[in-house]
Write a structure and sequence with these properties.
The complex is a heterodimer of chains A (299) and B (599). Chain A has 299 residues and is mostly helical. In chain A, 75% of the residues lie in helices and 3% in strands. In chain A, helix 1 runs parallel beside helix 5, helix 2 packs parallel to helix 4 and helix 2 crosses helix 9. The longest helix of chain A has 41 residues. Chain A is globular. Chain B is of the alpha/beta class. Chain B contains 22 helices and 14 strands. Chain B has a six-stranded antiparallel sheet with strand order 6-5-4-3-8-9, covered by helices on one side. In chain B, strands 10-11-12-7-13-14 form a six-stranded mixed sheet, sandwiched between helices. In chain B, strand 8 and strand 9 form a beta hairpin. The longest helix of chain B has 27 residues. Chain B is elongated, with a radius of gyration of 29 Å. The relative contact order of chain B is 0.11. About 7% of the residues of chain B have low confidence. The chains are: A mainly alpha (299), B alpha/beta (599).
């Protein structure tokens, strides 16, 4: 009897950890989605993506201090971040015809600037904001804040909307066309540079959105983007670069596994193990879980 | 060698002069600059010369510094043991990176390098009781050795000489290495990997060597930094350090020799000036990075350091000639005995290739031999054999003609080993071409190349190198196996290639400055320089002007006496004039073959 109870307790705590991880995974998916847009269509690896996320949270903090409303911040902060991304792209990246290394370095520079500006203005102390939804429910014997469920649900909704946007709208078609052949798209009269800027902005918007969503859960700090950037990288690689659905599944999977590992050991050990495993995985299977054939345009 | 000695002496003189002039504070600043310039040099070797961007240099820095620091802190074993161990493990990690580089490309490799350097960072944080983690570990160097390390490490003046000397030697070493063939091959990889593969270089091997050198440099700088600061932190592993090193190395322009040294000095002085204002220095670094990317060479132009040094150091002997109105004389190649490895030039048996659901090549069987001539299975399963032309002894020039999309280029790609995934058997110069693996990038296992020269519709050249360097890369490729070529030995070859192709007056101009026709000629010259036996030419006359077309035709006619060639061409007249056999390809099947004289 005692053993059975122990087992049940074990299983429920396992399930709880897994569910919590899944919620976290949904959020990672939202962040990785922004990274993925920018990579898939613009072939830019955005090293400042984590800092867009951080910026979203910081701006949300200021907006909430002024307006006392989380929901206004949820709209305003990502929009500001998105606009900032567009401006950055328009001024510095617009004319860099697809040179991956240059993009990498430029966004690394942006990341340095953003982090240290926030450090100068916002300060180095972690800040937390109140959760807008204070209800809790009982989940596998533990109390669980409804807000986290809301975050997961919201993330998945946004993700679905994004897929519809890319596949069903005119802008999505333009974006895909521009990504496939920049020169031809320009010749056809698509405002390619504008499309690219908007796509970069969209990536920033998603990161900012995730930042606002996460701000009631973890504390806001100028370095909070670094960790998240890595997670986003890992899931985009696992999902196969440029494969949005694969990225989504990989995020959920990664979140769940990390959740379980954290419950079993400690956050640091869980992270270390997973990163070690990812290194090996990339070496062994470089295209990720679901490869998409890249056409060799060279010959 | 003489120049290297001069440089070492110059460095020493500066170092000794510095020891008199500088006080303790500035001396330690110089030490710091020297140490980090070594890290920047390691980035420069990778990114500047070879074009491989990696955020993994901090891994070497952190690894070597941890091994030495922890070794001294926790044990009483001699220091030298830990230094050797640190350098050894750096080379091991370099092998891992080298292997990864042979498998991953571009963005994947960058992210791999970030993750790999993060792993020890997190590990070090996990065991922070032992390693000090993020907060760091202060060390004291009272070594038990009887060796005189103690006095070197604890006396600021001795340590100054020690560090500066190591850095000077390392810098001069890079310089001597990179002004020769090693550096040229690196640059070739940066400019056009694909062409390098085709020329027959073992890229994986070269990248591995470069990575080991680069890793050792970063490792040495890590060890020196531990000696200097007597402090260890897990943040040495963090990839943001690599990022900073990339800025040091590249903001004065990529791939210059003095760039990292001067760049590090400027930025570290700036950092020192701004040390009282938190956060300002990284912001400036960020701006510099963005500026140097978005308006290329702007920073370099403002400071013009690069140009200054280029004139002081005798890096190139510029032979500036005005290239207007020079009579191009073309040497004729004496028709020598055909020097092919085998009498059978190429052969394909039931070669079939499908892309998705489209059949591109359909059951192609053809055999070209210098003894028996050309025999082809035509569409109605007839086998037609044409013997060699009696007047042109052992000359084999075949043209493949046909509509667009009939599979001509694909057929050439299969022959040159680029196109994989076909069915059937293909032999070039009596050697099988493998269907699956790309042998060019093999890290383990055997490595071979076939002496095939392939040119493309859109030329594949090293865009930002001079014509001379392009041809030299070809010449080096012909002896890449021995890899011990002394650079100047190639001078006479270079001249003769230049004469043969009428390129002598262009030797010192960049490829990007050439006209399209000149590029086509250069590509041919490159392939010939690489000692190719069989030429596969994809539309050599496409887009070439009339004047250059005549030159090219003359060159090709000269070459055809000694090289069997297969070409794809739409231009009727030149094709007939140049070739002996004309094969017609329609929808992936041969429909006709005839002597060109019949047309």
């Amino acid at each position: 009897m005692k053993e059975a109870l122990f087992m049940i307790e074990h299983i429920t705590s396992f399930l709880f950890a897994a569910t919590n991880g899944l919620m976290w995974g949904a959020l990672i998916a939202l962040i990785a989605c922004g990274l993925s847009i920018v990579f898939t269509f613009l072939s830019i690896i955005n090293l400042a993506h984590g800092d867009f996320y951080m910026l979203g949270a910081v701006i949300a903090f200021y907006v909430i201090t002024i307006t006392h409303s989380f929901w206004i911040a949820l709209v305003v902060a990502p929009t500001i971040v998105g606009c900032l991304a567009i401006v950055f792209f328009w001024f510095f990246l617009r004319n860099q015809n697809g040179q991956t290394n240059k993009y990498l370095l430029a966004t690394f520079g942006l990341s340095l600037i953003l982090q240290n500006l926030v450090l100068l203005i916002f300060g180095g102390y972690p800040v937390k904001i109140d959760s807008p939804i204070t209800y809790t429910i009982t989940l596998f014997g533990n109390t669980y804040p409804v807000y986290r469920l809301f975050v997961a649900f919201f993330s998945i909704t946004i993700f679905t909307l994004y897929l519809l946007f890319i596949e069903k709208t005119k802008f999505g078609l333009w974006l895909r066309a521009t990504g496939a052949n920049f020169a031809l798209a320009t010749a056809l009269g698509i405002p390619t540079k504008l499309v690219y800027s908007l796509a970069f902005g969209l990536g920033g918007f998603f990161a900012g959105l995730a930042g606002v969503l996460v701000s009631p859960i973890i504390s806001i700090e100028y370095r909070m983007g670094n960790d998240v950037l890595l997670l986003a990288f890992i899931v985009t690689i696992l999902g196969g670069f440029g494969n949005v659905r694969g990225t989504f599944i990989a995020s959920l999977l990664y979140g769940t596994i990390e959740g379980i590992l954290i419950a079993a050991t400690s956050p640091l050990i869980a992270r270390t193990t997973l990163i070690g495993l990812c290194c090996i995985f990339i070496l062994v299977k470089k295209t990720g879980f679901s490869p998409i054939a890249k056409i060799n345009s060279r010959v | 060698m003489k120049e290297a000695l001069k440089l070492i002496l110059l460095g020493l003189a500066l170092c000794i002069a510095g020891s008199f002039v500088l006080d303790d504070f500035y001396r330690s600043l110089v030490i710091e600059i020297c140490i980090f310039s070594l890290l920047a040099q390691s980035v420069n070797i990778l990114y500047g010369y070879m074009g491989v961007l990696s955020f993994g240099q901090s891994l070497f820095f952190g690894l070597s510094s941890s091994i030495v620091a922890l070794g001294i802190h926790y044990t009483t074993k001699p220091l030298l043991l830990w230094v050797v161990l640190a350098l050894f493990s750096c080379s091991l990690v370099a092998v891992i990176f080298g292997y990864a580089l042979s498998r991953l490309e571009g963005h994947n490799f960058v992210i791999f390098s970030v993750l790999l350097s993060l792993f020890p960072y997190l590990l070090s944080n996990t065991f922070s009781n032992f390693t000090g983690g993020d907060d760091g570990l202060s060390l004291d160097f009272h070594l038990t050795d009887n060796f005189s390390f103690n006095s070197i490490l604890n006396n600021p003046l001795y340590f100054y000489f020690f560090t500066v000397l190591i850095v000077i030697v390392a810098t001069v070493l890079t310089w001597t290495l990179y002004k020769g063939s090693f550096g040229l091959i690196s640059k070739g990889i940066r400019e056009n990997q694909f062409r390098m593969e085709l020329l027959g270089y073992n890229l994986a091997k070269h990248k591995l060597y470069v990575y080991i050198i680069s890793g050792l440099f970063a490792g040495v700088s890590g060890i020196l930094y531990v000696f200097f600061s007597k402090y260890l932190s897990s943040s040495f592993f963090h990839w943001s350090l690599s990022g900073e090193a990339i800025v040091w190395a590249s903001f004065l322009g990529r791939g210059t020799f003095w760039g990292p040294l001067v760049g590090t000095a400027i930025l570290l002085l700036l950092k020192d000036e701004l040390s009282s204002y938190t956060g300002i220095y990284p912001i400036i670094i960020g701006f510099l990075l963005i500026l140097s990317i978005s308006s290329s060479k702007l920073v370099a132009k403002i400071l013009s350091v690069k140009y200054l040094f280029f004139h002081i150091v005798p890096f190139k002997n510029y032979m500036q000639t005005s290239s207007i109105n020079i009579d191009i004389t073309i040497d004729t190649i004496e028709p020598t005995e055909i020097d092919v490895l085998a009498s059978e030039v190429f052969k394909s048996n039931n070669l079939t290739l499908n892309f998705e659901h489209n059949s591109i090549l359909n059951d192609i069987s053809v055999k070209a031999s210098l003894d028996t001539g050309l025999s082809i299975k035509l569409i109605n399963n007839d086998i037609k054999t044409l013997s060699l032309m009696p007047h042109s002894k052992k000359k084999m020039a075949i043209a493949i003609v046909g509509e667009n999309g009939s599979g001509k280029t694909t057929f050439l790609n299969v022959l040159s080993g680029i196109q994989k995934g076909f069915y059937g058997e293909v032999k070039i110069l009596e050697k099988n071409i493998s269907k699956k693996t790309n042998k060019y990038q093999s890290f383990f296992g055997d490595y071979y190349t076939l002496p095939i020269g392939r040119t493309f519709q859109r030329v594949e050249l090293f865009q930002n190198l001079s014509v001379r360097e392009n041809v030299l890369l070809g010449l080096l490729a012909s002896q890449a196996e021995t890899d011990k070529v002394i650079f100047d030995k190639h001078y006479c070859h270079l001249k003769s290639i230049g004469n043969t192709f009428g390129l002598n007056h262009l030797f010192y101009s960049q490829v990007s400055e050439l006209s399209y026709g000149q590029k086509k000629i250069l590509e041919l010259a490159l392939v010939i320089a690489a000692d190719s036996k069989l030429l596969l030419l994809d539309e050599p006359f496409n887009g070439v002007g009339t004047q250059e077309k005549n030159i090219l035709l003359k060159i090709l006619q000269n070459l055809s006496a000694s090289h069997p060639m297969v070409l794809v061409e739409h231009d009727r007249d030149t094709t007939i004039e140049l070739t002996d056999f004309i094969i017609t390809l329609e929808n992936g099947v041969f429909t006709n073959v005839q002597y060109s004289t019949e047309l």
